[in-house]
Structure prediction request, 752 residues.
Amino acid sequence: MPQLEIQIIAVVTALACALPGAFLVLRRVSMLSDAISHAILPGIVLAFFLTEDLNSPLLILGAAVTGVITAGLIEALNRTGRVREDAAIGLVFPVLFSIGVILIARYAGGVHLDIDAVLLGELAFAPFDRIVIGGRDLGPKALWVMGSVLLVNTAFITTLYKELKLSTFDPPLAAALGFSPVLLHYLLMGAVSVTAVGAFDAVGSILVVALVVGPPATAYLLTDSLARLLLLSAAIGTLAALVGYWASHLADASIAGSMATVVGIFFFLAYLFAPQQGVIAAIRRARGHRRRFAQQMLLVHLLHHEDTPEASRECQPEHLQEHLRWNEEIAGIAIKSSLRDRLVVSRGGLLHLTSEGREIAREAMVA
Amino acid sequence: MTLPFVLDFTLRTVAIGAAVLGIVSGTLGTYAVLRGQSLLGDAISHAALPGIAVAFLLTGVRSPVVLVLGAAAAGWIGALLVLQISKQTRIPYDASLGLVLSVFFGFGMVLLTFIQRLPSGNQAGLDTFLFGQAAALLPRDVVVMSVLGLIAISATILLWKELKLLAFDREFGASIGLPMRALDVTLTSLLVFAIVIGLQTVGVVLMSAILIAPAAAARQWSDRLGRIVLLAALFGAAAGVTGAVISASTPRLPTGPTIVLCAGAIMLVSLLAAPRRGLLAAHVRSRRSHRNLRELGVLEDMYTLARHHEDPLHPHPAVVLRTMTSGPESVQPGLRGLERRGWARRVDGDLWALTDSGLESAHAEFAAPVAGEAPGVRSLHGGRR
Prediction:
């Protein structure tokens, strides 16, 4: 039972993170997830001092408010024109995190409010923290929390889908049409904060970053449509959560850590093999361009010398290297691919254009 | 709070370590901040974790040299991956930062759980890298930090001109034949050095602040690279030593966060109080120019009235001045400002007149352009006379 529950919590968390994450990645503010997931610490601690109850929903509220304040502070610092945005992010969150750590160290020494847990979380313990009302076991608390976060995020993105889409891809138009980009930005930051707060308990703030940024970044290599990006991110996040869980189970290692690792592996696979955006596809495309260009050059060359007295010399394969100043490799590629595509035939040691080859050469010359 | 901590051996070690850390990260942080790579440091420091774990797994020793080398190798790979991903694909730079830092860190956590279960089993010491434990710094750690720091600083000085070009005009550097790509990699490697030096003291999470805060603070005080670097090193050392001393002399005050708060305080003070770029200076400047503009506006209107009157020093009611401007509410404070300057005087109640020096200043300020602009007014005036 606990095993199944851990997996469900992991999947729900991955889904809740991937939805706002897609917009963070597209809007180039991914690092705000890192900043917020760290900076909420003092909010949690202060709310804890007020309520003296680690299970109080006020903790989540306090942390969410701190998250939005963090985004606001970064924005304010950036707007002074004295500090660039990335430096502002890198200044604000460590300072807030430090305040949180110091508050815990000085005033909350005896309590179970552990910095290790905040950073790393421990999914394995999540099933043991259950909600029991009137003697009835309603399931693990983390599942309720993350389930609510997932509901909130889904509602947020489905209701404001069009607004979010427009303000992500064309902020000036969105502003002109009367959707406040600022309001949308802070709503999104609020969603990220709530997600980070809900998740830090179970998976820790670093895995929040992995789940927020990783699946959408992977999906971004695989599709050009926003709707598909959201669905793919969700699917990739789910898969990473499950594979990560079982990997950690087999290797007896940190669950959050192996989920993050699997996210990284998925991204790396997409980075290499994505059909359009992948590195291998890019290399093949570059090779294809080079081959087509070499082929065209060869055909034009043959056309130029066709039926001329020098043809017997110019149309020898060996001569091409000298005349076109090609090295052996490119000449070989051009000749072989042209022979294969039947644009050229070899007769008596000389290359002759076929009618198709002549056609392509003429087109290339006109272009 | 005990005072004779100057003689305290541990504290001296920690303070020297924190100073070295501050100097090196201040210096290299300057380049990161100026080049818009402030958060690369955050990615590198997180990415270092699996390197520390692998170094320990491979060698089985907790020697600072081995661990620092492991951290540097992994941090370096992480940094190059970030740059490579954002160059080769359409993934934005910040997303590749977030990805690399969280994935490397997660993998590091997996490795740490392995180490925990080893029979030799003391993971103790490795997790100090997470949050830093300045109090646990030993003299041998400080020696390693100093040697690495010296290498990094010397390289920065030797490559001064080249790195300056890299930071400010990369294309020009490339056009005069400098290997900008190699320099980029070198600078990133030096940044990695600065980070691994700090990991043991302030930890993975807070390292980025030690890198950014002194540099961003120094930037407010000067526009010259040399001065910024020197100031950043100074600020870094000050934050390091102050933080170490405060935390050592106060019970239950962790060192890393205290150093970060000191650096943050230096940043805040610089942002507010720096002479030219500072926000206070800017505020004073803008208030002054606002006031100046207001007074000149009233002066111009008074001058216009004066030129249409036989006696230029004849008093006029303020209500007339108020009808002459689109901002009537600025007339009263403007008049009072002119009075303070001795350019206008209150004759009686609401009646105001220019003084001699006021007329002179107004003439110097407004006569020429008005004369050229509207000769007709003047001749009309003269004709009537």
